[in-house]
User: What shape does this take?
Amino acid sequence: MDLRFSPAQQAFREEVRAFIAARLPEEVRTRLKAGHPPRKEEIVQWQRILNEKGWAAPHWPRKYGGAELGQLERLILLDELSRAPAPLPQAFNVTMLGPVLMKYGTPQQCEYFLPKLANLDLWFCQGFSEPGSGSDLASLRTSARRDGDSYVVNGQKIWTTTAHWADWVFALVRTNPEGRKQEGISFLLIDLKTPGITIRPIRSIDDDHHLNEVFFDDVRVPLSNLVGEENKGWDCAKFLLGNERTGIANVGLYRERLEHAREVARTTTQAGTRLIYDPKLQSDLAALDAEVRALEITNWRFLLTESEQKRLPAFPSVLKLKGVELQQEVNSLLARLAGPGGLERRGPDDTEFGPLAPRYFYSRAASIYGGTSEVQKDILAKNIVG
Assistant: This one.
């Protein structure tokens, strides 16, 4: 398999780099380089800048605001955004919901929602996880019963990332309690301003507010907000989760974090010696660099070879598993480099160590969200046996 870039692809990389250098606000780059997550307003501003060129949703059709980029060009764009570093396009909108609407949505849903998703005029969050369900997503209990031209939704979602920022939620609800639990599930789009919705914050181990509980009490949702067929929402969910897990293998981010680790090691001393000269640290950096390169090639292999995708439908689980492992290892290395100073509570604009230790703590959740590592291993085992 030939993984070399063509002259046109090299030129595209240079175009992306020049665009980022010219348009990305320097204060945003500085905060992200220090390890701070982007603020909502920074994500919105940058996604709208990207959308001017169709790069907010680069793989989408042009009629919906995309650029119809090929797989490799899309990887180049993501890599350069991550290595800048710059905020990435909002994944719930672009990577998850958008493709679901294009595959299962009505023409009216596509026409209305897709341009707004690309330009971040509407911010969606994901309403999948529920209390007591764990990794068994199909055991969800949030119900939706028909009443005239609406569904009436009751139940609770948990661990809902960015619900406090969002305008809408795409949610899995149970529309038929009979039969197999994977059957009887539907996929709804719900406006979070609808009466009966309550959002409560969950503060995580990094002392930040990423997550929420969302409660639905007799929430009326128009029937027109159903995506796909009633009781067939599990098909939408499986399709969406495949996209989500592939997106977790963000090679550019790991490269940027590794380079930041080298920079921290070059500028930090212990007993009068710069950390970068420590042989054990040099070995760790080299090993991680090799692992990132291996993941990069694996990602290319999957995304660029159509026959591989057909033969290996569970391959996103491979990328998810290894991507999570690297994410945790890189964050662990950065926390170790920061030492005791990294444990101090830092302000939102601190650029010395930033939130290196909190980011390490929060990275432990990466092996849970998007499907736990144990579930991914089960998926792979079943496909290998099959």
The chain has 13 helices and ten strands. The radius of gyration is 21 Å.
